[in-house]
Amino acid sequence: MLLPELVTPCLVVDLDALEANITAMAGLAARLGVDLRPHAKTHKCLPIAARQLAGGAVGLTVATVAEAEVFAEVCTDLFIAYPLWVDAARGRRLRELSERVRLGVGVDSVAAVEMLAAHRLPGVDVLVEVDSGQHRTGVGPDGAAEVGLAAARAGLSVRGVFTFPGHAYAPGAAAPAGSEEAVALRAAEAALRRVGLDTSVRSGGSTPSAAHTRGGVVTEMRPGVYVFCDAQQVELGVATTDQVALFAVGTVVSRGSDRVVLDCGSKVLGADRAGWAAGFGLVPDAPGPVVALSEHHATVPWPREPPALGTLVPVIPNHVCAAVNLADELLVLRAGALVDRWPVAARGANT
């Protein structure tokens, strides 16, 4: 699928695989009876968001106010799944956004609720974040009532609760994380119900735990990586290499008797590497992964006859979200032909 005229390093999208992934996740959500609200921080790209919405997504998830501002161009229902600390500048931006789209934001403390309420944002709903086992952000399920009540008393509309089962990103952890997600959301729902608050939205989900989502408890799922898949999903057994829809492409710039060096280093692939990962990225055509990574060098073992200098080599990034955020554009290929170039519109939208 690699065109010889590609200027490397670059990121290429296999459009057939991308569309198949979008369809497959929409089908899973429908079978589970839950709404699909994909996380757009993975692709940061308006044409992909439009495809997800056309495929049945009820809205989009984002991580920052800046991402919401970008995706408001194509989506009218956005959820910022992050415990925002809303200063004056963010307050103004949220007010402007809420005049354009239906907007939800995450909270996980009374102090954050008070900051949000101080900016008088009647068009903004809140969802209380619950910790379901990742132990990053979120209150315990029983603490959801305190945060929710604070929001209601401050005049904010409470839409429900959400969690992120991020601890599913480990071998053998997806099914337990799905169970723990359901337990936490059920307990948080009960806590909010006891104090008379709305629990119509119980939002969760991740790509590795998507198949273990408990419909009936979870009402909405927010996977992101599924649209491309990456080396983590392949090594976890969540996806096959045939389902990977985004590759970094590097050129062999140096070679030895048992290895090659590609020009797609950490400034292209990103430097994420989980402790259980085989390397810094998977190379479908090579006998091993990327074993060493510098800013502009990716070293790949190749004990058989290494490819010649100038050969184009595809690499599956470990963490596709980080790789996409390093690129200005995605080159879109179908059946070996370059059919489009998509700007990474939300690149660097971190505020």
What can you see in these coordinates?
The protein has about 350 residues and is an alpha/beta fold. It has two domains: about 15-225, TIM Barrel, CATH 3.20.20; about 230-345, Lyase, Ornithine Decarboxylase, Chain A, domain 1 (Beta Barrel). It is built from ten helices and 17 strands. It has helices spanning about 15-30, 45-55, 65-70, 90-100, 110-115, 145-155, 175-195, 230-235, 265-270, 320-325, and strands spanning about 10-15, 35, 60, 75-85, 100-105, 125-130, 155-160, 200-205, 220, 245-255, 260, 280, 290-295, 300, 310-315, 330-335, 335-345. Strands 1, 10, 11, 12, 13, 14, 15, 16 and 17 form a nine-stranded mixed sheet that branches. It has an eight-stranded parallel sheet with strand order 2-9-8-7-6-5-4-3. β10 and β11 form a beta hairpin. The model has no long low-confidence stretch (mean pLDDT about 95).
